[in-house]
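User: Teach me something about this protein's shape.
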Amino acid sequence: MTWSTYAAFTAMMAFLAMMPGPDTMIVLKNALTGGARGGAWACAGITVANFLQGTAAALGLGAVVTRSQPVFETVKWAGAAYLVYLGVQALRGAWRGDYDALDDVRRARATRSRRFREGFLSNITNPKVIVLYLSVLPQFLTPGVTGQGDALLLAYTVAALGVLWQVLLLLFVHRVRGWLERRRVRRVVDGATGTALVGFGAALALEG
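Assistant: First, the predicted structure itself:
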């Protein structure tokens, strides 16, 4: 693989990483309720799932999921249901608006493992991630020239770019946390986040 090919791949994936999606919303949701650490644990869960899906795609295991209709449909509906569930939680928070009491309850319930699990499950049950790997990676690989190591390098680059974007998002949230904690702003952000997550879940469920 040439450096120019790798640079083109990295540029394209960096652009896609910054596009608003379920991962971004999950990190934002946890950063609002648990601060930078809460968002970081969600980010860690997403990263582990991303690396697993990238590894599966690079080793050819991801094709097994996409080719098996029952498995693919099960993963798709599980992912859609989970995103809608998380979205409804955020919308309930926006509707109530009682953040002092609500945050105390959330902090008591939302352990590190729970935030990690939320990030992990939202990514691992999203079949669009594995489909992205399977559709994009082959375009930058040449049969007989590039090998499995090149495929793994590209897959891990995608995961690493995702981490970089989420860390930048956490830094931004940390800098403007005082403004985001205002009740009116928080309700708007929770409403937007919840609506986006429900929308992502619905779009995933309805996608053929």
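Now, about its shape. DSSP finds ten helices and no strands in the chain. Residues 57 and 132 are 9 Å apart (CA to CA). If you'd like, I can walk through any region in more detail.
User: That's plenty for now, thanks!
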